[in-house]
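Re: How this chain folds, sequence and tokenised backbone to follow
Notation: Tokens come from a learned vocabulary of local backbone shapes, not from coordinates.
Start of record: The labelled sequence and token lines come straight after this line.
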Amino acid sequence: MPRDEAVVPAPVRRNGSSRAAALAAAARRRRRLEAVLPWLLTLAALALWEVAVRGFAIPEFILPKPSAIAASMVKWWDPLLQNSWQTLMTTVVGFAAAIAFGLALGTAIGSSSLLYRGLYPVLIAFNSVPKVAVVPILVIWFGIGSVPAAITAFLLSFFPIVVNVATGIATVEPELSDVLRALGARPLDIVRKVGLPRAMPFFFASLKVSITSAFVGSIIAETVGSNAGIGHLMIVASSRFDVPLVFAGLVVTAVMGVAMYGGAQMVENRTIGWATRGMPAA
């Protein structure tokens, strides 16, 4: 018998093993609960919605029942599929451009105090402009179609990325920068090896916000000046007072947003899992 096992009494070893097994079982139960909890809450909300609409006899043209929305999705599945694909493509294009432009501009602003002080007020002023007011101008410039929707998705989603990346790089400790410079590191080396890794948690947090903003931009542009997309479909449905189809468009948009959010979460877990490994369980 090894010396360490001989020193520890058998009851203590058994208690330690039992406690470790109990903790592992509790962790497994918590993971299962975390996996099913969103579905349970969603089903509970839908059931409450259905009961409330039926109980208060709310007209369908004001607030349709979830069952009526589901029936409308089944009835109009082909137009929903085609228009949702159009909205998804324009959103992905605008969102990808926002990632590339936001990451580059955020890195430049966070790396230079001169750019930080010079461009930050301009970005704040630009972001304060209502994007709904910009869409008609984009329609005049680029015509009716997917281009204004993609640009609007870009305009609404790039600002959080720029701000978060710039903040992550700009908040590198001065002492750490001084030590690296004393060791011979160039400013570009500090940004590449310290600033960007530090900004990655901020970057992925901004992606989760920007995803929803990108869909909002696409839908807004499609309602104003487009002949395809979920926004266009919702406008056509509302003109016919087909409110269940309008809500069906909202449901499809929500599903696409959750799917893109889950993709960003997956990439985050695989790339910067080190950033949250020390977070305590709630």
